[in-house]
UniProtKB/TrEMBL annotation:
This is phosphoglucomutase (alpha-D-glucose-1,6-bisphosphate-dependent). Monomer. It comes from the Eukaryota. It comes from Nicotiana tabacum (Common tobacco). The gene is LOC107803921. GO terms for molecular function: phosphoglucomutase activity.
Amino acid sequence: MASTPNPSHSIQTINASRTNFPSLPMNKPIHKKLHISLNKSSLRVESCSTAKYNDVEEMDKIKRLQNGSDVRGVALQGEKGRSVDLTPPAVEAIAESFGEWVINGLEKEKGVRVSLGKDPRISGNMLSVAVFAGLSRAGCMVFDMGLATTPACFMSTILPPFQYDASIMMTASHLPYTRNGLKFFTKKGGLTSPEVEEICDKAARKYANRLAKVSTRLPITPTMVDFMSAYAKHLREIIKERVNHPSHYDTPLKGFQIIVNAGNGSGGFFTWDVLDKLGADTFGSLHLNPDGMFPNHIPNPEDKTAMALTRAGVLKNKADLGIVFDTDVDRSGVVDSEGNTINGDRLIALMSAIVLKEHPSTTIVTDARTSMALTKFIRNKGGQHCLYRVGYRNVIDKGVNLNKDGIETHLMMETSGHGALKENHFLDDGAYMVVKIIIEMVRMKLEGSEGDIGSLIEDLEEPLESAEVRMIVLSEPRNAKAKAVEAIEAFRTHIEQGSLPGWELDACGDCWVSDGCLVDTNDDPAAIDAFMYRAKVSDEQNGEHGWVHLRQSIHNPNIAVNLQSTIPGGCQSMAKVLIDRFLLPSGMDKILDVSQIDKYARTGNLS
Protein backbone atom coordinates (compact mmCIF):
# COMPACT_ATOMS: atom_id res chain seq x y z
CA MET A 1 0.00 0.00 0.00
CA ALA A 2 2.04 2.94 -1.28
CA SER A 3 1.62 6.49 -0.12
CA THR A 4 1.38 9.46 -2.45
CA PRO A 5 4.62 11.44 -2.76
CA ASN A 6 4.45 14.70 -0.89
CA PRO A 7 7.56 16.91 -0.94
CA SER A 8 6.36 18.80 2.12
CA HIS A 9 6.57 15.76 4.40
CA SER A 10 9.75 14.92 6.23
CA ILE A 11 10.56 11.56 7.74
CA GLN A 12 10.19 13.14 11.16
CA THR A 13 6.61 14.26 10.65
CA ILE A 14 5.54 10.98 9.09
CA ASN A 15 6.98 8.85 11.88
CA ALA A 16 5.75 11.15 14.62
CA SER A 17 2.17 10.40 13.68
CA ARG A 18 2.59 6.65 14.19
CA THR A 19 1.74 6.32 17.86
CA ASN A 20 0.21 2.85 17.83
CA PHE A 21 0.54 -0.51 16.14
CA PRO A 22 -1.92 -1.00 13.27
CA SER A 23 -3.46 -4.42 12.68
CA LEU A 24 -2.78 -5.69 9.17
CA PRO A 25 -3.27 -8.96 7.27
CA MET A 26 -0.57 -11.50 7.97
CA ASN A 27 -0.25 -13.18 4.57
CA LYS A 28 2.40 -10.73 3.43
CA PRO A 29 4.34 -7.73 4.79
CA ILE A 30 2.70 -4.41 4.10
CA HIS A 31 5.05 -1.94 2.41
CA LYS A 32 4.69 1.80 2.22
CA LYS A 33 7.32 4.14 0.80
CA LEU A 34 8.48 7.16 2.75
CA HIS A 35 8.84 10.12 0.41
CA ILE A 36 11.22 12.57 1.93
CA SER A 37 11.63 16.21 1.06
CA LEU A 38 14.47 18.14 -0.55
CA ASN A 39 14.27 16.15 -3.77
CA LYS A 40 12.70 12.98 -5.04
CA SER A 41 15.72 10.76 -4.66
CA SER A 42 17.64 11.98 -1.68
CA LEU A 43 17.45 12.57 2.02
CA ARG A 44 19.38 15.30 3.77
CA VAL A 45 20.48 15.02 7.37
CA GLU A 46 21.37 18.33 8.94
CA SER A 47 23.96 18.05 11.67
CA CYS A 48 26.87 19.90 13.17
CA SER A 49 29.92 21.96 12.26
CA THR A 50 32.58 21.50 9.61
CA ALA A 51 35.52 22.46 11.79
CA LYS A 52 38.65 20.33 11.75
CA TYR A 53 38.81 17.98 14.75
CA ASN A 54 41.49 16.39 16.81
CA ASP A 55 41.34 12.79 15.55
CA VAL A 56 42.07 11.04 18.87
CA GLU A 57 39.57 13.13 20.78
CA GLU A 58 36.90 12.60 18.13
CA MET A 59 37.50 8.84 18.03
CA ASP A 60 37.21 8.64 21.81
CA LYS A 61 33.79 10.28 21.63
CA ILE A 62 32.46 7.39 19.57
CA LYS A 63 34.23 4.66 21.52
CA ARG A 64 32.79 5.96 24.81
CA LEU A 65 29.29 5.44 23.42
CA GLN A 66 29.76 1.69 23.63
CA ASN A 67 27.78 0.27 26.55
CA GLY A 68 28.70 -3.41 26.65
CA SER A 69 26.75 -5.01 23.82
CA ASP A 70 24.80 -1.79 23.14
CA VAL A 71 25.45 1.82 22.23
CA ARG A 72 24.06 4.51 24.52
CA GLY A 73 24.49 8.22 24.94
CA VAL A 74 22.88 11.58 25.62
CA ALA A 75 20.73 12.55 22.64
CA LEU A 76 19.07 15.71 24.02
CA GLN A 77 20.13 18.56 26.24
CA GLY A 78 18.68 18.61 29.72
CA GLU A 79 21.00 16.55 31.92
CA LYS A 80 23.08 18.45 34.41
CA GLY A 81 26.77 17.84 33.84
CA ARG A 82 26.24 15.85 30.63
CA SER A 83 26.56 17.16 27.10
CA VAL A 84 24.96 15.65 24.01
CA ASP A 85 27.21 12.95 22.56
CA LEU A 86 24.81 10.68 20.65
CA THR A 87 24.56 13.03 17.68
CA PRO A 88 23.24 12.27 14.17
CA PRO A 89 26.79 12.15 12.71
CA ALA A 90 27.86 9.69 15.42
CA VAL A 91 24.81 7.51 14.86
CA GLU A 92 25.30 7.59 11.10
CA ALA A 93 28.91 6.44 11.42
CA ILE A 94 27.92 3.59 13.77
CA ALA A 95 25.02 2.49 11.56
CA GLU A 96 27.26 2.53 8.48
CA SER A 97 29.88 0.43 10.26
CA PHE A 98 27.21 -2.03 11.41
CA GLY A 99 25.89 -2.30 7.85
CA GLU A 100 29.39 -3.00 6.54
CA TRP A 101 29.95 -5.55 9.31
CA VAL A 102 26.75 -7.37 8.34
CA ILE A 103 27.61 -7.29 4.63
CA ASN A 104 31.11 -8.64 5.28
CA GLY A 105 29.73 -11.39 7.49
CA LEU A 106 27.21 -12.49 4.90
CA GLU A 107 29.77 -12.17 2.11
CA LYS A 108 27.31 -10.62 -0.29
CA GLU A 109 27.55 -7.14 -1.70
CA LYS A 110 23.91 -6.56 -2.67
CA GLY A 111 20.49 -7.27 -1.26
CA VAL A 112 21.35 -7.07 2.45
CA ARG A 113 18.15 -6.07 4.26
CA VAL A 114 18.19 -4.34 7.66
CA SER A 115 15.19 -3.27 9.76
CA LEU A 116 14.98 -0.48 12.34
CA GLY A 117 12.57 -0.22 15.26
CA LYS A 118 12.43 2.39 17.98
CA ASP A 119 10.82 3.17 21.32
CA PRO A 120 8.82 6.42 21.69
CA ARG A 121 11.69 8.67 22.79
CA ILE A 122 11.41 12.13 21.30
CA SER A 123 14.92 11.95 19.80
CA GLY A 124 13.99 8.79 17.88
CA ASN A 125 12.82 10.45 14.68
CA MET A 126 15.91 12.62 14.34
CA LEU A 127 18.31 9.75 14.96
CA SER A 128 16.34 7.34 12.75
CA VAL A 129 17.25 9.48 9.75
CA ALA A 130 20.92 9.08 10.67
CA VAL A 131 20.56 5.29 10.95
CA PHE A 132 18.91 5.09 7.54
CA ALA A 133 21.66 7.29 6.09
CA GLY A 134 24.44 5.14 7.53
CA LEU A 135 22.91 1.83 6.48
CA SER A 136 22.25 3.13 2.98
CA ARG A 137 25.80 4.46 2.70
CA ALA A 138 26.98 0.94 3.56
CA GLY A 139 24.83 -0.46 0.75
CA CYS A 140 21.95 -1.95 2.75
CA MET A 141 18.24 -1.92 1.93
CA VAL A 142 16.46 -0.35 4.93
CA PHE A 143 13.05 -1.10 6.44
CA ASP A 144 11.30 1.11 9.00
CA MET A 145 9.29 -0.81 11.62
CA GLY A 146 8.34 2.40 13.43
CA LEU A 147 7.34 2.00 17.08
CA ALA A 148 8.57 -1.46 18.09
CA THR A 149 10.13 -3.53 20.86
CA THR A 150 13.65 -4.86 21.17
CA PRO A 151 12.58 -8.54 20.99
CA ALA A 152 10.48 -7.77 17.91
CA CYS A 153 13.55 -6.41 16.15
CA PHE A 154 15.34 -9.73 16.56
CA MET A 155 12.22 -11.67 15.60
CA SER A 156 12.03 -9.62 12.39
CA THR A 157 15.15 -11.48 11.26
CA ILE A 158 13.55 -14.94 11.56
CA LEU A 159 9.75 -14.65 11.25
CA PRO A 160 8.48 -15.15 7.69
CA PRO A 161 7.83 -13.42 5.39
CA PHE A 162 10.08 -10.64 6.74
CA GLN A 163 13.32 -12.46 7.68
CA TYR A 164 15.67 -9.48 7.46
CA ASP A 165 19.41 -10.07 7.51
CA ALA A 166 19.86 -7.82 10.54
CA SER A 167 18.02 -5.34 12.71
CA ILE A 168 18.65 -2.33 14.94
CA MET A 169 16.53 -1.24 17.88
CA MET A 170 16.80 2.40 18.92
CA THR A 171 16.26 2.60 22.68
CA ALA A 172 17.93 3.49 25.95
CA SER A 173 15.74 1.11 27.97
CA HIS A 174 14.72 2.65 31.31
CA LEU A 175 17.08 5.63 31.15
CA PRO A 176 15.73 9.22 31.05
CA TYR A 177 14.09 10.72 27.97
CA THR A 178 17.31 12.61 27.18
CA ARG A 179 19.14 9.35 26.44
CA ASN A 180 18.97 7.05 23.47
CA GLY A 181 20.93 4.15 22.05
CA LEU A 182 21.21 1.27 19.62
CA LYS A 183 20.92 -2.50 20.01
CA PHE A 184 22.08 -4.76 17.20
CA PHE A 185 20.80 -8.13 15.96
CA THR A 186 21.48 -10.69 13.28
CA LYS A 187 19.72 -14.00 12.76
CA LYS A 188 22.14 -15.46 15.32
CA GLY A 189 20.93 -13.10 18.06
CA GLY A 190 22.24 -9.98 19.75
CA LEU A 191 25.79 -8.88 19.11
CA THR A 192 28.43 -9.45 21.78
CA SER A 193 30.46 -6.72 23.46
CA PRO A 194 33.61 -7.48 21.41
CA GLU A 195 31.56 -7.28 18.20
CA VAL A 196 30.07 -3.92 19.18
CA GLU A 197 33.54 -2.72 20.15
CA GLU A 198 34.79 -3.64 16.67
CA ILE A 199 31.91 -1.73 15.07
CA CYS A 200 32.46 1.33 17.26
CA ASP A 201 36.19 1.31 16.50
CA LYS A 202 35.45 1.42 12.76
CA ALA A 203 32.80 4.07 13.30
CA ALA A 204 35.26 6.18 15.31
CA ARG A 205 37.68 6.28 12.40
CA LYS A 206 34.93 7.21 9.98
CA TYR A 207 33.70 9.95 12.29
CA ALA A 208 37.13 11.42 12.87
CA ASN A 209 38.03 11.41 9.18
CA ARG A 210 34.89 13.19 8.03
CA LEU A 211 35.65 16.88 8.18
CA ALA A 212 32.29 17.82 6.65
CA LYS A 213 29.48 16.55 8.84
CA VAL A 214 26.77 18.74 7.38
CA SER A 215 24.86 16.76 4.79
CA THR A 216 24.24 13.11 4.04
CA ARG A 217 22.29 12.00 0.98
CA LEU A 218 20.29 8.80 0.56
CA PRO A 219 19.91 7.36 -2.93
CA ILE A 220 16.92 5.33 -1.67
CA THR A 221 14.21 5.81 0.92
CA PRO A 222 13.35 3.37 3.72
CA THR A 223 10.35 1.10 3.29
CA MET A 224 7.80 1.18 6.10
CA VAL A 225 6.58 -2.22 7.32
CA ASP A 226 4.14 -3.35 10.00
CA PHE A 227 6.01 -6.11 11.76
CA MET A 228 4.44 -5.66 15.20
CA SER A 229 1.15 -7.22 14.06
CA ALA A 230 3.00 -10.34 12.92
CA TYR A 231 4.92 -10.49 16.20
CA ALA A 232 1.71 -10.10 18.25
CA LYS A 233 0.05 -12.87 16.26
CA HIS A 234 3.09 -15.06 16.92
CA LEU A 235 2.64 -14.58 20.68
CA ARG A 236 -1.12 -15.21 20.49
CA GLU A 237 -0.60 -18.48 18.66
CA ILE A 238 1.88 -19.69 21.28
CA ILE A 239 -0.64 -19.06 24.08
CA LYS A 240 -3.51 -20.73 22.21
CA GLU A 241 -1.49 -23.81 21.26
CA ARG A 242 0.09 -24.40 24.65
CA VAL A 243 -3.02 -23.74 26.73
CA ASN A 244 -5.15 -25.78 24.30
CA HIS A 245 -8.30 -24.74 26.14
CA PRO A 246 -10.91 -27.52 26.02
CA SER A 247 -13.94 -25.22 25.57
CA HIS A 248 -12.71 -21.96 23.95
CA TYR A 249 -9.45 -22.57 22.12
CA ASP A 250 -9.30 -19.15 20.42
CA THR A 251 -10.03 -17.19 23.63
CA PRO A 252 -8.08 -19.07 26.32
CA LEU A 253 -7.86 -15.97 28.54
CA LYS A 254 -11.63 -15.54 28.82
CA GLY A 255 -12.52 -15.07 32.48
CA PHE A 256 -9.10 -13.66 33.43
CA GLN A 257 -8.47 -10.01 34.23
CA ILE A 258 -4.92 -8.91 33.45
CA ILE A 259 -3.61 -5.39 34.02
CA VAL A 260 -0.70 -4.10 31.96
CA ASN A 261 1.48 -1.14 32.93
CA ALA A 262 3.44 -0.17 29.81
CA GLY A 263 4.96 2.95 31.40
CA ASN A 264 4.25 4.93 28.20
CA GLY A 265 6.86 2.82 26.42
CA SER A 266 6.46 0.34 23.56
CA GLY A 267 4.54 -2.32 25.51
CA GLY A 268 0.97 -1.16 24.96
CA PHE A 269 0.57 -3.52 21.99
CA PHE A 270 0.54 -6.49 24.38
CA THR A 271 -2.77 -5.26 25.80
CA TRP A 272 -4.82 -4.68 22.66
CA ASP A 273 -3.06 -6.95 20.18
CA VAL A 274 -2.41 -9.98 22.41
CA LEU A 275 -4.50 -10.07 25.61
CA ASP A 276 -7.71 -8.46 24.32
CA LYS A 277 -7.77 -10.70 21.26
CA LEU A 278 -7.39 -13.78 23.46
CA GLY A 279 -10.44 -12.85 25.53
CA ALA A 280 -8.78 -11.27 28.58
CA ASP A 281 -10.33 -8.37 30.47
CA THR A 282 -7.66 -5.64 30.54
CA PHE A 283 -9.71 -2.94 32.27
CA GLY A 284 -7.54 -0.96 34.68
CA SER A 285 -4.39 -1.13 32.55
CA LEU A 286 -2.00 1.79 32.95
CA HIS A 287 0.04 4.14 30.76
CA LEU A 288 -0.48 2.29 27.49
CA ASN A 289 -0.07 5.28 25.15
CA PRO A 290 3.49 5.83 23.90
CA ASP A 291 4.98 9.04 25.30
CA GLY A 292 8.70 9.64 24.91
CA MET A 293 8.78 11.96 27.93
CA PHE A 294 7.66 9.11 30.23
CA PRO A 295 5.48 11.43 32.34
CA ASN A 296 4.16 8.93 34.90
CA HIS A 297 7.16 6.91 36.07
CA ILE A 298 10.29 5.24 34.78
CA PRO A 299 9.26 2.28 32.57
CA ASN A 300 11.17 -0.29 34.57
CA PRO A 301 10.07 -3.46 36.43
CA GLU A 302 12.66 -2.60 39.09
CA ASP A 303 11.10 0.82 39.70
CA LYS A 304 9.20 0.95 43.00
CA THR A 305 6.62 3.42 41.69
CA ALA A 306 5.89 1.27 38.63
CA MET A 307 5.40 -1.83 40.74
CA ALA A 308 3.37 -0.02 43.42
CA LEU A 309 0.96 1.47 40.87
CA THR A 310 0.50 -1.91 39.24
CA ARG A 311 -0.05 -3.58 42.59
CA ALA A 312 -2.69 -0.99 43.48
CA GLY A 313 -4.42 -1.59 40.16
CA VAL A 314 -4.46 -5.36 40.68
CA LEU A 315 -5.93 -5.08 44.17
CA LYS A 316 -8.48 -2.40 43.23
CA ASN A 317 -9.80 -4.39 40.27
CA LYS A 318 -9.33 -7.81 41.86
CA ALA A 319 -7.30 -8.80 38.82
CA ASP A 320 -5.62 -12.15 38.33
CA LEU A 321 -2.29 -10.72 37.21
CA GLY A 322 -0.43 -7.44 36.79
CA ILE A 323 2.34 -6.93 34.25
CA VAL A 324 5.05 -4.25 34.17
CA PHE A 325 7.19 -3.76 31.07
CA ASP A 326 10.28 -1.67 30.61
CA THR A 327 10.45 0.83 27.75
CA ASP A 328 11.52 -1.57 25.00
CA VAL A 329 9.88 -4.71 26.47
CA ASP A 330 12.97 -6.86 26.79
CA ARG A 331 12.29 -6.96 30.56
CA SER A 332 9.18 -7.50 32.63
CA GLY A 333 7.91 -8.02 36.15
CA VAL A 334 4.55 -9.21 37.47
CA VAL A 335 2.16 -8.83 40.41
CA ASP A 336 0.10 -11.82 41.55
CA SER A 337 -3.59 -11.72 42.47
CA GLU A 338 -2.79 -11.06 46.14
CA GLY A 339 -0.70 -8.01 45.29
CA ASN A 340 2.71 -9.61 45.77
CA THR A 341 5.28 -7.98 43.52
CA ILE A 342 7.43 -10.46 41.61
CA ASN A 343 10.68 -9.10 40.20
CA GLY A 344 14.39 -9.62 40.81
CA ASP A 345 15.15 -12.92 42.55
CA ARG A 346 11.43 -13.63 42.93
CA LEU A 347 10.88 -13.46 39.16
CA ILE A 348 13.87 -15.72 38.56
CA ALA A 349 12.45 -18.18 41.10
CA LEU A 350 9.02 -18.10 39.42
CA MET A 351 10.47 -18.73 35.97
CA SER A 352 12.72 -21.44 37.42
CA ALA A 353 9.71 -23.21 38.94
CA ILE A 354 7.88 -23.11 35.59
CA VAL A 355 10.87 -24.23 33.53
CA LEU A 356 11.86 -27.02 35.95
CA LYS A 357 8.39 -28.53 35.57
CA GLU A 358 9.07 -28.84 31.85
CA HIS A 359 12.79 -29.63 32.05
CA PRO A 360 13.68 -31.34 35.36
CA SER A 361 17.32 -30.98 36.45
CA THR A 362 18.11 -28.29 33.87
CA THR A 363 20.80 -25.72 34.61
CA ILE A 364 19.70 -22.13 35.22
CA VAL A 365 22.20 -19.31 34.67
CA THR A 366 21.89 -16.03 36.60
CA ASP A 367 24.15 -13.11 37.34
CA ALA A 368 26.20 -13.35 40.50
CA ARG A 369 24.07 -10.85 42.46
CA THR A 370 21.35 -13.40 43.19
CA SER A 371 20.79 -14.65 46.72
CA MET A 372 21.97 -17.81 48.41
CA ALA A 373 18.27 -18.49 49.02
CA LEU A 374 17.63 -18.55 45.26
CA THR A 375 20.37 -21.14 44.80
CA LYS A 376 18.73 -23.24 47.52
CA PHE A 377 15.30 -22.82 45.88
CA ILE A 378 16.57 -23.95 42.45
CA ARG A 379 18.41 -26.94 43.89
CA ASN A 380 15.39 -27.97 45.96
CA LYS A 381 13.35 -27.99 42.74
CA GLY A 382 15.92 -30.31 41.18
CA GLY A 383 17.80 -27.74 39.10
CA GLN A 384 21.40 -26.62 38.91
CA HIS A 385 22.38 -22.98 39.46
CA CYS A 386 25.26 -21.33 37.59
CA LEU A 387 26.31 -17.92 38.92
CA TYR A 388 27.97 -15.79 36.27
CA ARG A 389 29.02 -12.29 35.30
CA VAL A 390 26.62 -9.38 35.63
CA GLY A 391 25.29 -8.22 32.26
CA TYR A 392 22.34 -9.75 30.45
CA ARG A 393 24.42 -10.53 27.37
CA ASN A 394 26.99 -12.34 29.53
CA VAL A 395 24.28 -14.42 31.22
CA ILE A 396 22.57 -15.34 27.96
CA ASP A 397 25.80 -16.17 26.15
CA LYS A 398 26.84 -18.38 29.06
CA GLY A 399 23.64 -20.39 28.60
CA VAL A 400 24.27 -20.69 24.87
CA ASN A 401 27.81 -21.95 25.48
CA LEU A 402 26.74 -24.42 28.17
CA ASN A 403 24.26 -25.96 25.75
CA LYS A 404 26.99 -26.22 23.11
CA ASP A 405 29.16 -28.00 25.68
CA GLY A 406 26.41 -30.53 26.43
CA ILE A 407 25.04 -29.01 29.65
CA GLU A 408 21.26 -28.65 29.23
CA THR A 409 20.45 -25.04 30.09
CA HIS A 410 16.90 -23.81 29.44
CA LEU A 411 16.74 -20.53 31.40
CA MET A 412 19.11 -17.57 31.68
CA MET A 413 18.03 -14.59 33.82
CA GLU A 414 19.51 -11.47 35.31
CA THR A 415 18.14 -9.80 38.44
CA SER A 416 17.26 -6.73 36.35
CA GLY A 417 14.47 -8.71 34.66
CA HIS A 418 16.27 -9.73 31.47
CA GLY A 419 15.35 -13.36 30.89
CA ALA A 420 15.94 -15.70 27.96
CA LEU A 421 14.79 -19.21 27.21
CA LYS A 422 16.40 -21.85 25.01
CA GLU A 423 12.99 -22.53 23.42
CA ASN A 424 12.76 -18.87 22.30
CA HIS A 425 16.06 -18.48 20.43
CA PHE A 426 17.92 -17.45 23.62
CA LEU A 427 16.20 -14.06 23.26
CA ASP A 428 15.62 -11.81 26.27
CA ASP A 429 11.96 -11.02 25.64
CA GLY A 430 9.87 -9.53 28.42
CA ALA A 431 6.65 -10.27 26.53
CA TYR A 432 7.58 -13.93 25.98
CA MET A 433 8.47 -14.25 29.65
CA VAL A 434 4.97 -13.01 30.54
CA VAL A 435 3.48 -15.39 27.97
CA LYS A 436 5.09 -18.30 29.86
CA ILE A 437 3.65 -17.04 33.16
CA ILE A 438 0.17 -16.55 31.67
CA ILE A 439 0.17 -20.06 30.20
CA GLU A 440 1.11 -21.50 33.61
CA MET A 441 -1.60 -19.40 35.30
CA VAL A 442 -4.30 -20.75 32.96
CA ARG A 443 -3.04 -24.33 33.26
CA MET A 444 -3.15 -24.12 37.04
CA LYS A 445 -6.79 -23.02 36.91
CA LEU A 446 -7.71 -25.76 34.44
CA GLU A 447 -6.07 -28.29 36.77
CA GLY A 448 -8.20 -27.06 39.67
CA SER A 449 -5.43 -25.37 41.64
CA GLU A 450 -6.64 -22.92 44.28
CA GLY A 451 -3.36 -21.00 44.31
CA ASP A 452 -2.20 -18.36 41.87
CA ILE A 453 1.20 -18.03 40.25
CA GLY A 454 2.60 -16.57 43.48
CA SER A 455 2.07 -19.93 45.18
CA LEU A 456 4.85 -21.37 43.02
CA ILE A 457 7.45 -19.41 44.99
CA GLU A 458 5.92 -19.45 48.47
CA ASP A 459 8.89 -21.47 49.78
CA LEU A 460 11.48 -18.99 48.48
CA GLU A 461 13.33 -17.50 51.43
CA GLU A 462 14.13 -13.80 51.36
CA PRO A 463 17.62 -12.50 52.22
CA LEU A 464 17.61 -10.78 55.59
CA GLU A 465 19.71 -7.86 54.38
CA SER A 466 20.96 -6.48 51.11
CA ALA A 467 22.65 -3.22 50.15
CA GLU A 468 24.26 -1.50 47.18
CA VAL A 469 26.72 1.37 47.24
CA ARG A 470 28.76 3.05 44.51
CA MET A 471 32.37 4.18 44.45
CA ILE A 472 33.07 6.84 41.81
CA VAL A 473 36.36 6.51 39.94
CA LEU A 474 38.47 9.63 40.48
CA SER A 475 39.84 9.90 36.97
CA GLU A 476 39.38 11.44 33.56
CA PRO A 477 36.70 9.54 31.61
CA ARG A 478 39.21 8.02 29.21
CA ASN A 479 41.18 6.48 32.10
CA ALA A 480 38.24 5.48 34.30
CA LYS A 481 37.93 1.94 32.95
CA ALA A 482 41.59 1.12 33.58
CA LYS A 483 41.44 2.57 37.11
CA ALA A 484 38.31 0.56 37.92
CA VAL A 485 39.95 -2.64 36.69
CA GLU A 486 43.02 -1.85 38.82
CA ALA A 487 40.85 -1.54 41.95
CA ILE A 488 38.86 -4.70 41.29
CA GLU A 489 41.97 -6.75 40.55
CA ALA A 490 43.46 -5.49 43.83
CA PHE A 491 40.29 -6.76 45.58
CA ARG A 492 40.89 -10.21 44.11
CA THR A 493 44.56 -10.18 45.13
CA HIS A 494 43.72 -9.24 48.73
CA ILE A 495 41.31 -12.17 49.01
CA GLU A 496 43.73 -14.67 47.46
CA GLN A 497 46.50 -13.50 49.79
CA GLY A 498 44.28 -14.05 52.84
CA SER A 499 44.16 -10.37 53.79
CA LEU A 500 40.39 -10.65 54.31
CA PRO A 501 39.91 -13.61 56.72
CA GLY A 502 36.80 -15.67 55.99
CA TRP A 503 36.43 -14.20 52.49
CA GLU A 504 36.77 -16.56 49.52
CA LEU A 505 36.27 -16.04 45.80
CA ASP A 506 33.01 -17.78 44.89
CA ALA A 507 32.55 -20.47 42.24
CA CYS A 508 29.58 -22.63 41.25
CA GLY A 509 31.89 -25.40 40.06
CA ASP A 510 29.63 -27.45 37.82
CA CYS A 511 29.59 -24.86 35.04
CA TRP A 512 33.34 -24.27 34.75
CA VAL A 513 33.14 -20.86 36.33
CA SER A 514 35.66 -19.88 38.99
CA ASP A 515 37.46 -16.90 40.48
CA GLY A 516 34.49 -15.03 41.86
CA CYS A 517 32.06 -16.17 39.14
CA LEU A 518 34.07 -14.34 36.48
CA VAL A 519 36.48 -16.70 34.76
CA ASP A 520 35.55 -19.56 32.42
CA THR A 521 37.92 -22.47 32.95
CA ASN A 522 36.89 -24.48 29.90
CA ASP A 523 38.80 -24.63 26.62
CA ASP A 524 36.89 -21.74 25.04
CA PRO A 525 36.55 -18.97 27.65
CA ALA A 526 34.37 -15.97 26.82
CA ALA A 527 36.02 -12.57 26.59
CA ILE A 528 35.65 -10.39 29.69
CA ASP A 529 33.81 -7.13 29.00
CA ALA A 530 33.86 -5.80 32.56
CA PHE A 531 35.73 -6.96 35.66
CA MET A 532 33.83 -8.14 38.73
CA TYR A 533 34.27 -10.63 41.56
CA ARG A 534 31.94 -12.20 44.11
CA ALA A 535 33.34 -13.25 47.47
CA LYS A 536 31.45 -15.48 49.89
CA VAL A 537 31.89 -14.53 53.53
CA SER A 538 32.05 -16.89 56.53
CA ASP A 539 33.00 -16.81 60.19
CA GLU A 540 33.23 -19.36 63.01
CA GLN A 541 30.02 -18.25 64.71
CA ASN A 542 27.67 -18.06 61.71
CA GLY A 543 29.32 -20.14 59.01
CA GLU A 544 28.71 -18.85 55.49
CA HIS A 545 26.38 -15.91 55.98
CA GLY A 546 26.75 -13.54 53.03
CA TRP A 547 28.55 -12.32 49.97
CA VAL A 548 30.14 -9.18 48.55
CA HIS A 549 30.20 -8.43 44.83
CA LEU A 550 32.36 -5.71 43.24
CA ARG A 551 31.90 -4.86 39.58
CA GLN A 552 33.09 -2.29 37.13
CA SER A 553 30.13 -0.37 35.71
CA ILE A 554 29.93 -0.33 31.92
CA HIS A 555 27.50 2.61 32.05
CA ASN A 556 29.34 5.10 34.24
CA PRO A 557 32.81 5.65 35.75
CA ASN A 558 32.14 3.87 39.02
CA ILE A 559 32.33 0.55 40.83
CA ALA A 560 29.14 -1.02 42.21
CA VAL A 561 29.38 -2.84 45.53
CA ASN A 562 26.55 -5.27 46.31
CA LEU A 563 26.27 -6.95 49.69
CA GLN A 564 23.83 -9.56 50.98
CA SER A 565 23.60 -11.25 54.37
CA THR A 566 21.52 -13.78 56.26
CA ILE A 567 22.36 -12.34 59.71
CA PRO A 568 21.38 -8.99 61.30
CA GLY A 569 24.02 -6.34 60.73
CA GLY A 570 25.89 -8.58 58.32
CA CYS A 571 26.01 -6.14 55.40
CA GLN A 572 27.33 -3.30 57.54
CA SER A 573 29.93 -5.63 59.07
CA MET A 574 31.15 -6.74 55.63
CA ALA A 575 31.29 -3.12 54.48
CA LYS A 576 33.44 -2.28 57.50
CA VAL A 577 35.88 -5.09 56.66
CA LEU A 578 35.99 -3.93 53.04
CA ILE A 579 36.83 -0.33 53.95
CA ASP A 580 39.18 -1.04 56.89
CA ARG A 581 41.07 -4.04 55.56
CA PHE A 582 41.13 -3.38 51.83
CA LEU A 583 40.15 0.04 50.51
CA LEU A 584 42.06 2.24 52.97
CA PRO A 585 45.19 0.10 53.58
CA SER A 586 45.68 -0.48 49.85
CA GLY A 587 45.35 3.21 48.98
CA MET A 588 42.22 2.67 46.88
CA ASP A 589 40.78 5.86 48.37
CA LYS A 590 43.24 7.70 46.13
CA ILE A 591 41.54 6.47 42.95
CA LEU A 592 38.00 5.86 44.29
CA ASP A 593 35.54 7.99 46.20
CA VAL A 594 34.90 5.66 49.14
CA SER A 595 32.81 8.12 51.16
CA GLN A 596 29.48 6.34 50.59
CA ILE A 597 30.66 2.90 51.64
CA ASP A 598 32.62 4.42 54.54
CA LYS A 599 29.47 6.14 55.78
CA TYR A 600 27.49 2.91 55.50
CA ALA A 601 30.20 0.96 57.33
CA ARG A 602 30.20 3.47 60.21
CA THR A 603 26.47 4.22 60.48
CA GLY A 604 24.55 1.56 58.56
CA ASN A 605 22.85 4.41 56.69
CA LEU A 606 22.60 4.31 52.88
CA SER A 607 20.88 7.68 52.41
